[in-house]
Amino acid sequence: MKLYKSDKTSLLALCAAGVTLVLSGSLQAGEAYLSEDALFYEGVDAGIEVSDPFEGFNRYTFALNDFLYQNVMEPIATTYGAITPDPVEVAANNFFDNLRYPVRLAGNLLQGRWRGAWVETGRFAINSTVGIAGMMRPADEIAGFAPIKPEDIGQALGSWGVGEGPYLVLPLLGPSNLRDFGGLIADRSVNPLKEPFSGIRDWGWEWELAFDATDFITSSPEALARYRELKGQAIDPYSSLKNGYTQFRRGAIRE
């Protein structure tokens, strides 16, 4: 059967949809807690208290995530890294990170971090124009607009005194807690790539799914490398990740 150009586009979109649906989400820097560098720093305090009433279910989800990371995400990330030149990988990561500006802006504004909001806005304007849609980051070299630690709505909730609640392990997205899960939902509401307010919805579902799949693929290699490092060094990776995540989030809220 002969396939026309529009048919081929639809088939590519279906492939993207399959990846996205099988993985049930994407590892994004405002949403993917596994992508946070600080989760894997050395010196995690194993003695901190973390409410984990759902440990049995969390460990099951952790094991499921581990299986998917190794058998689905790892091959995708390895292939992507092998066939994609490094400058293209960097440009793709920069592009999607730039698009998450509304999440970082909201996190700063909700905490009254006016300087942070100003820096994020300036970086977005500079990188979106001079940096060609965010693929380059010329703002890094401009005084007053160097990168700052990203803020999110979960952090804002914590700064308002909202308790973290029980620890949760989300399918694919990894470590979280009840408060940060609520923040994750709020982050999606201001993310231009996510429903319900996706800025690319009018382009058609094929484009939206393709964006999701591409964003997932570009963010996977670094997250998986750090996950492998954690798993290889820890006697109990579940507890190590739980403690590391909790310490990181508590520290981010205190700052």
Describe this structure in words.
This protein has 255 residues and is mostly helical. It has one domain. The protein has nine helices and two strands. It has a two-stranded antiparallel ribbon with strand order 1-2. α1 packs parallel to α8, α4 runs antiparallel to α5 and α6 crosses α9. The longest helix is centred in the first third of the chain and has 29 residues. The chain is globular and about 50 Å long. The N and C termini lie far apart (61 Å).
In what range is the share of β-strand residues?
under 5%
The number of helices is 9
**Strand count, sense and closure of the main sheet?**
2 strands, antiparallel
Rg to the nearest angstrom?
19 Å
Average pLDDT: 78
Give the overall silhouette: globular
- For the largest beta sheet, what order do the strands appear in spatially? 1-2
Number of domains: 1
User: What is the number of strand segments?
Assistant: 2
The secondary structure category is mainly alpha
Termini separation (Å)? 61 Å
* Uncertain ranges: 1-38
Could you state the order of secondary-structure elements as H and E?
HHHHHHEEHHH
Q: Which percent bin holds the helix content? A: 55-70%
Provide a quick synopsis of the model:
This protein is mainly α and 255 residues long. The chain has helices at residues 5-23, 55-83, 86-99, 101-110, 114-129, 153-159, 178-190, 205-233, 237-254; strands spanning 167-170, 174-177. The longest helix has 29 residues, at 55-83.
